[in-house]
Amino acid sequence: MTAAGFHRTLVIIAFHATINKAVEAHWTNETSPAQITIKQLGDVLGLDVSCEPDWKTIVSRLNNFFVDKSELVITVTQFITIWAHNAAVTATDRNHRNWAETCKEKILDNNSELVLDVKVGGGAQPYTRWEVDHFVLYLPKMKPHPPKGYSGAIKEGIVEVFER
Description:
By secondary structure, the protein is an alpha/beta fold. The chain has one domain (3-160). Helix content is 58%, strand content 13%. The chain is built from six helices and four strands, in the order H-H-E-H-H-H-E-E-E-H. A hairpin with a 2-residue loop joins strand 3 (127-131) and strand 4. Helix 1 (3-28) packs parallel to helix 4 and helix 2 packs parallel to helix 4 (69-92).
């Protein structure tokens, strides 16, 4: 192996190590805000919630927008946290009483748990879709401003998801 090839191999190993460390700290850790908020959503709905991001695909789609790869993972987990929080708020909001009932009916028709899939969308805004038997949170295909700034758009998407 040439020196350049060896260096490239080390860079790739460091890249994956950074991502894996960030995923472990900010996603899989049971005390991470994302996991706590997902559990709270499950408690509100009385259902288990499953969300297993395909980190390899997400990182490959967003890699060019983030110099710091751990920031990429943190941003994605913040979007998931905001989504779960807004879904829980919507489920308990008197103005959206039917949302929680419709959500449970659609979930229980096909699953025993709420499944949230996370993908990278094609535009600059996050959005939510209902796909046959699960929710899909589409992330912006860019380095977004702080994810909290998208909370209103995420909540609106959650509220409207069953109206389409």
